[in-house]
Amino acid sequence: MAVCIAVIAKENYPLYIRSTPMENELKFHYMVHTSLDVVDEKISAMGKALVDQRELYLGLLYPTEDYKVYGYVTNSKVKFVMVVDSSNTALRDNEIRSMFRKLHNSYTDVMCNPFYNPGDPIQSRAFDSMVTSMMIQVC
Amino acid sequence: MRAASARAVLRRADWCMADTVLFELLHTEMVAELWAPDPDPGPGGQKTSLSVLESMGFRVGQALGERLPQETLGFREELEVLKFLCKDLWVAVFHKQMDSLRTNHQGTYVLQDNSFPLLVPMASGRQYVEEAPKFLAFTCGLLCGALGTLGFQSLVTASVTALPACKFQVVIRKP
Fold it and tell me: Transmembrane region positions (chain A) (predicted)?
């Protein structure tokens, strides 16, 4: 269960950003922003490595004392950043991967929506409800 | 056993062929619709219609550029993106690959299709060469949009000397 999910455009501005504990929103925005540097590092590091199969999933970007931040980049250089609670040790790598895959599929659906202008903030309710299903349930 | 598999192959071929025809018919109607209100709009009106078709293709190309590439980050350089256009994109939209790709290695690429599916039903030779550009506008936009999503600003133009062969010239703009 994620605490914050963000979709960042290739020009590095947020297309969609949502976090659950409403009062600490700014802190999560800041975390996502700082993680963009790490994402760029990973992408350029992968570019130099002569590996044929480079993955879209970037893995753990950096851990803090309370949270872990994971990243994923698409072929169109759109980045997904997910912040997860550190105390939630039950979440495994392949669960994070499947959450990113769902995000990617929903983002592709948003792109194919004729009412969506690429580059605009995402306002699709279907995308919203998919993200809600992935976020932590805070009462 | 062989009869069953032969039937299955035929059924799949029918389905594939029906698929292509549907898009061709829709595309023909799109062009006809944009030209219909003013059968002789003059150079200004024609340009608007061409740019409308191109912008439609652009939006479709943007969406395809997001949906088609595979699950791995395969595009290390320009040439790989162009190969993706010639193979995967062309197969997805027109069920065939581009016939040839040439480049001057300085940002200009010429994609040649010797039997472009949208022109095949029209003629085979020099008849209707003047009418052909309006049937290529959507596809130019498609290429431009797909390149845009994959990170390259480009200018795409098409030229026809003898149907149904056509050439698309792609010039990648350096940032």
Answer: none
* Chain B environment of A59 (Cβ under 8 Å): none
Chain B residues lying within 8 Å of A114, measured CB to CB: 59
* Host H or E run for residue B65: helix B42-67
Q: Is the pLDDT of residue B40 over 90?
A: no
Number of inter-chain CB pairs under 8 A, A vs B: 42
Q: From the DSSP assignment, how many helices (H) and strands (E) are in chain B? A: 5, 4
- Dist. CA B45–CA A122, nearest whole Å: 35
User: With a cut of 0.95, is the ipTM above it?
Assistant: no
What is the per-residue pLDDT for B77?
81
Tokens describing residue A55:
């993955």
On whether the CB atoms of residues A42 and A58 are closer than 8 A, the answer is yes
**Structure letter (DSSP) for residue B102:** E
pLDDT tens for each residue of A49-82: 655 567 788 888 888 888 889 999 988 889 999 9
Characterize the bridge pairing of strands A79-85 and A2-8: antiparallel
DSSP of A70-116, one letter per residue?
EEEE-TT--EEEEEEETT-TT--HHHHHHHHHHHHHHHHHHHH-TTP
Q: How far is B95 from chain A (nearest CA, A)?
A: 20
SS3 B155: strand
Q: How far apart are CA A73 and CA A81, in angstroms?
A: 9
| Chain A residues with CB-CB distance to B56 below 8 A | none
